[in-house]
Specification:
Two copies of one chain form a homodimer.
Chain A lengths: L2 H8 L6 H8 L2 E6 L4 E3 L7 E7 L1 E7 L5 E8 L3 E2 L2 H6 L6 E4 L3 E7 H10 L2 H26 L2 H11 L1 H6 L2 H8 L3 H13 L1
Antiparallel strand pairs in A: 1-8, 2-7, 3-6, 3-8, 4-5, 4-7
Chain B binds a DNA duplex through helix 9.
DNA sequence: TCCAGATCTTGATCTACATCAACGTGCTTT
DNA sequence: AAAGCACGTTGATGTAGATCAAGATCTGGA
């Protein structure tokens, strides 16, 4: 149950067995069925979620009802509405499952206690944030400087597994394209 | 000299006078003239820089020579090529000054020692990263879901001072627009 | 089994924004 | 004071990608 997350953590910080137990003891295991919400707009996000199985997405819904995907997550990734989680404000994103999934969730108050009891966790979450920050920065620069086709090619180069698992129109939404445009890009690419 | 940065820090963590001294003792004060580089593509970023005066920008240059602005920074903000800094790889961004500026720079090895000696700094930089992360996420969602005009209106709403200080074509570059398009958007807005 | 919805594709048309080009103004540098 | 940039504006035209519409598969639920 905890193998994946402990392995994930051990890449960044070293824990004693006691500390590892301290950590896993506050994790809550949850199963999320396909199309089921992990978080809905308006709720306050209580948890940081580590995905142990399946695939989820975080997305906003605009005034016209259009969905815009902020991030995907698969096994070994974290997913949450970080802003809601950090500031205790209502979430602006929905998170739901694209496949039957399982997550390990840590509650905010538990995480804060953990920071105090095992200071290394400050370091861990700082590193995770750094990586996420850098990924976001690349995504921004891509979106302001690349064509739709270039962005899609970068996407499949960086996330080849996601391209296989996720419906095409969800990827279009992630890239800020219409499904039709992505379909045409793929058709052109197939010829090359 | 250190008033601004100590005030900035005190919003997030509480330091003893000794810890504050420990911190300021590793800061390096630098003056950067308008158009002068703080960091150039290819160099490894050695510093995190806190701006005490002036205005800087971080930007990439694409194959066609086009500049794409990753971020602006003014007094009270941090600026760096975080990826280069964290991974000791050559920077992919230039940072230069849009006005005569001054920064306080902390070197990577000093920061790492600081994390050990004063663990609260882990917390500080985690919080700073969280804020930056959230800002980036909003920018991504804006760029994939809003029109050019909407993005510009959001920009001036969020950064009214930047809109005053920064040349218009730099803002266009930040938003991923051409200077002509931004000029036309502003003309339309003026009528409203 | 059958129906409804989800997904993807293809074509026709539209439009937001880019590109190209010219010009005015006000700094900076000498 | 002159020359040269940097910066912004405006107009004409081009194009990437959106929108609208229709149809083909496929899938899951009653």
């Amino acid at each position: 149950m905890y193998d994946l997350i402990l392995d994930h953590i051990s890449r960044h910080i070293r824990l004693t067995p006691a500390e590892a137990n301290r950590f896993t003891s506050v994790l809550r295991h949850r199963k999320i069925r396909r199309r089921q919400y992990l978080l809905q707009v308006g709720d306050v996000s209580q948890y940081e979620n580590f995905i142990t199985k399946g695939c989820l997405r975080a997305y906003t819904v605009d005034a016209q009802g259009g969905e815009h995907i902020a991030m995907f997550g698969v096994e070994g990734w974290w997913i949450s509405d970080l802003f809601s989680f950090l500031t205790n404000t209502p979430a602006t994103q929905n998170i739901d499952a694209l496949e039957d999934s399982e997550v390990l969730s840590i509650e905010k108050s538990d995480l804060e206690k953990l920071y105090i009891d095992v200071p290394e966790f400050n370091r861990l979450f700082r590193i995770l944030l750094q990586n996420a920050f850098v990924a976001h920065q690349k995504r921004i620069l891509a979106s302001i400087s690349q064509t739709a086709e270039e962005q899609y090619m970068s996407f499949i180069a960086r996330y080849p597994t996601l391209d296989q698992r996720v419906p095409q129109h969800q990827i279009a939404s992630y890239l800020g394209l219409t499904p039709e445009t992505l379909s045409r890009i793929r058709k052109l690419q197939a010829k090359k």
